[in-house]
Amino acid sequence: MAPRFRIPAMAMAGFLAAWGTLATAATVLSGGRRVLASQAVPPLKSDQSTPAAPATDPAAYAVKSILPIDGPLKMGDAHWDESAAPGKGTIVITVDLAAQVLSVFRDGHEIGAAAILFGADAKPTPLGVYPITQKDADHVSNIYHAPMPYMLRLTNDGISIHASEVEDGYMTHGCIGVPKPFAKKLFAAVKLGDKVIVTRGEKLDVGKPITAA
Prior knowledge:
This protein is mainly β.
């Protein structure tokens, strides 16, 4: 849920070793995934199946263009450029926990991409397709009493997207943390009911539909 917390240095080394292979890749792989410059890629647990994306208006979910980001994303990086997208259109947000990247699409055009924090402790970020059910620019967690600026609620038990200091060695209690300037733009761009697709391995191939598989 809300606050990020620091993993001690020695514990961090064990955490990375236990969670998977350290991956180094360009921003967009040949398979169509945005990734960080390097990150531990957690394995998909057998009980973490990913629901299918909504079937309504599949054309609105097709990837039409990707932001031309040079080089790999790094922790704290965020990009926002609406110049290739129409002013109006269906907003879809994809979150790839393996790549540790969030992408924002309007009418199929990527308008934003950012490195993220996510839950990797006893409160993992859940996979699935979620509508945004609440927006609160000045939200404070009633569980942790911590600020969650530009909060976009995804679940009734407090999982949300919100502004955070996105730095190496931090995680959340299940929420998705993005850099504050990016969070502010995202908050302004979305409306209640817009879909957020949380996966572990989302592909963003141009001309293909955005799915949760």
